[in-house]
């Protein structure tokens, strides 16, 4: 930190803070999005979700981020973390791929698929789409997700990489005809 300016603010790198506010960390790429930066933002989100770390994922959202996930509506990082904790307790061996569908200004729409199994060993491929809206610092302030679960046989799985980040050489949704 370089110190506090006369107006009560300090800046360094991608960190900005006002003494009367919570620190705001910039999460590049920032809006307005291009095809390249929207794809990068989607890949960063995919990587975070594939970590299955609720605290890590929640840091990409504003403290008051509003979510709709299927039929659940909630707001704020604490609620996001609690939701993700429940999700990954139920959706085991979770592997996700996201792909940009459209973008403009501070919004990105993605389609995605993820594979997982329940505690009885039943495999599913969940297909969905998300609409994202970002603030000026690149934090997601709104997320709306519609998702459908399709039961699949273990032999029908297409996502076989080790748990964690999808390898760069692994095909995406379009290449997998999903």
UniProtKB/TrEMBL annotation:
SUPFAM superfamilies: NTF2-like. InterPro entries: DUF1348 (IPR009783), NTF2-like_dom_sf (IPR032710). Transmembrane segments: none annotated. Signal peptide: none annotated. PANTHER family: SLL0781 PROTEIN (PTHR31757). This is 50S ribosomal protein L21.
